[in-house]
Structure formats: structure tokens, C-alpha cells
Design brief:
Elements: E1 6-11, H1 14-26, E2 32-34, E3 48-49, E4 59-60, H2 61-74, E5 78-80, E6 84-88, E7 94-98, E8 102-111, E9 115-117, H3 123-127, E10 133-134, H4 137-140, E11 148-152, H5 156-166, E12 171-175, H6 185-192, E13 197-200, E14 203-209, E15 216-221, E16 227-231, E17 234-237, E18 241-243, E19 274-276, H7 288-312
Parallel strand pairs: 1-2, 1-8, 2-5, 8-19, 10-17, 11-12, 11-17, 12-13
Antiparallel strand pairs: 3-4, 6-7, 7-8, 9-18, 14-15, 15-16
Helix pairs in contact: 1-2, 1-7, 5-6
């Protein structure tokens, strides 16, 4: 255990965590940030980021995360490798175990553990990730203007992203494993009434085709067993995300999918002194810019909380 209590502990990196570290450092909170198992989060597997303000020519995802990390370090943030593996929020100061090895204490905790996209689990999917394979149409759809793309999914998010892609792409082929979607009726109707979206029912992906980039996909009709090669330059996976919030189960209030509940328009959780930001609590927008915004909010909320308990003391 560290000799002193950390004023502000940030669990997780990425746009939310690093922005929280920047604001907390400038506020004199001397934050300690643990990067987690995937430093930089989902943007580390994103090639071109063109929709984050301040980068008129775009920027590579890993470079953007390195820039944010350097900016946080410049103001004095203590950024460390490692991940939180156990937390005790029952009393203050909070106790957080790192890498199952040692425990530190903190007056405030900012949770910025993010969420991970669910994937199909194909070798070709991993190999072509960032080379035409994406889990975010809003992030990457722009690069496929006027082209043919494939999207996999059957929920509201998949329908929303298919509709978004239809405005940019020549044709969108939507693969649905069953004979029906689980999306809301209004979202299904939107897809089915869009002229350049074709839905292939009872269809699963066997392989994403291409060497240096996506060239198409080999799919199979589950009912007939017939295999077909589809031509496309983009392959979007929209089968959901999983928030990285498992260690907070039973401690922080969450929804049925594991996203942390925050209070109204703040980042406050049900535990005073613990705040949540980024994709760990946002299942709607899931953008780098919105994650950074809530990271700013969490740092400001933590600063105000610390000021309030100092006044009481």
C-alpha cells in the first residue's frame, strides 16, 4: 500500500481517462491514472480519426492517444501501467487493488474503463481490423463513400448504423442470423424502406475476404447451407458492446447491460466520491469527443467534491 492517500485515482485511459487526468492535474488534484489492460482503449485499433475537433487533416488513433497522454503528463498526472482488479468503496478513503498485488487508497475515484466492441471471433476479422473492418459506422463510414459495404447485426444499433451508412455508401448489405430482427419496429421499418439497404436473413459470416484490405465476405444461409461470396470494401460489426465494469458489480448501480448509472447531467455514481465517464456509462453516443467531454465533467465533479469535504472538515 502506498504511504499516502491519492487525492484522485483514474481507472482506465482513452479519451475519457486522459481528459480527466488533464483537468484534474490542472486543478492541482495530483491524479494517478492506471491505463488498464488496453492503454488508449478502442482508438488504439482505429487508423484515421477525422471527426475529433482540432485535427483538420485527421490523426491516427494511437497517435491521438499518445498526444493526450503527453498532455496529461505535462501537467503532472502520474500515469502508470496496470489495472484495478478489486475495489472497496464501503468507506473513505476508498481501497483499490492493482494487478491483484498491492492496494492503494484514494479520496476520489474516476471510472473510465470504457467498453469493448463485441466481435464475431473470426481470424480474418482480427487480421483486417482497421483495414476495412470496423465496429463504428459513425467513426469510419466516411471512408467508404460511394462504395459497397456489409454490416452484421439485428438490433437498434445495427439498424441505425445501416441507415447511416446508406447515406454515404452505394449499397449496404445487412446480415441477420435469424429470420427476424430484435430491433424496434420503427428502426426495422427504416431499414426495410431504404432503397440501397439489402437484408440477407438467416445468414452468417464464415470469412472476411481480402489480404491488405476488405474485398468482401463469404457467407452462408443457415437454413439451406448455401455459401455465397459478397463483394464489399467495408465490413461493419454491430452486434453490441460490453462495458468494462465487471469489478464494480454489486458496488455501483448499473443497467442490465453493465453500464454505470450516473446522476442526471453529472458523472456522480451512487457512491459519493466515485465518478464515471466515457463508454463505461455511455451506451448511446460512444464517440471519442463525448468521452472526452465526460472525462472533463468527472474531473470537475471530483474537484468540487473534494472542496466540499474540505469545507466540512
Amino acid at each position: 500500500m502506498e504511504n499516502s492517500v491519492v487525492s484522485c485515482l483514474i481507472i482506465g485511459s482513452g479519451p475519457a481517462g486522459y481528459t480527466a487526468a488533464i483537468y484534474a492535474s490542472r486543478a492541482g488534484l495530483n491524479p494517478v491514472l492506471y491505463t488498464g489492460p488496453e492503454p488508449g482503449g478502442q482508438l488504439m485499433i482505429t487508423n484515421d480519426v477525422e471527426n475529433f475537433p482540432g485535427y483538420p487533416d485527421g490523426i491516427m488513433g494511437p497517435q491521438m492517444m499518445e498526444d493526450l497522454k503527453k498532455q496529461a503528463t505535462r501537467f503532472g498526472a502520474d500515469i502508470r501501467s496496470g489495472m484495478a482488479t478489486e475495489v472497496d468503496f464501503s468507506s473513505s478513503p476508498f481501497k483499490i487493488k492493482i494487478d491483484n498485488e498491492y492496494t492503494l487508497e484514494a479520496q476520489t475515484v474516476i471510472v473510465s474503463t470504457g467498453a469493448s466492441a463485441k466481435w464475431l471471433g473470426l481470424e480474418s476479422e482480427t487480421r483486417l481490423n482497421g483495414k476495412g473492418v470496423s465496429a463504428c459506422a459513425v467513426c469510419d463510414g466516411f471512408f467508404f463513400r460511394g462504395q459497397d459495404v456489409i454490416i452484421v447485426g439485428a438490433g437498434d444499433t445495427a439498424c441505425e448504423e445501416a441507415t447511416y451508412l446508406s447515406k454515404l455508401c452505394r449499397k449496404v448489405t445487412m446480415l441477420v442470423r435469424k429470420g427476424e430482427m430484435r430491433a424496434s419496429t420503427i428502426m426495422q421499418n427504416r431499414v426495410l424502406n431504404t432503397h440501397n439497404i439489402e437484408v440477407l436473413w438467416n445468414t452468417e459470416t464464415l470469412e472476411i475476404l481480402g489480404d491488405e484490405g476488405v474485398e468482401g465476405a463469404r457467407v452462408r444461409n443457415i437454413l439451406t447451407g448455401e455459401e455465397t461470396n459478397l463483394l464489399a470494401t467495408g465490413f461493419f460489426v454491430a452486434i453490441g458492446h460490453k462495458p468494462n465494469t465487471g469489478i464494480f458489480n454489486g458496488i455501483l448501480d448499473m443497467d442490465e447491460n453493465g453500464y454505470i448509472h450516473t446522476d442526471k447531467i453529472s458523472t456522480r455514481t451512487n457512491v459519493e466520491g466515485v465518478f464515471a465517464c466515457g463508454d463505461a456509462q455511455d451506451h448511446i453516443y460512444r464517440q471519442a469527443i463525448t468521452a472526452a467531454g465526460t472525462g472533463c465533467m468527472a474531473a470537475l465533479d471530483a474537484e468540487r467534491y473534494l472542496a466540499s469535504i474540505e469545507v466540512v472538515a
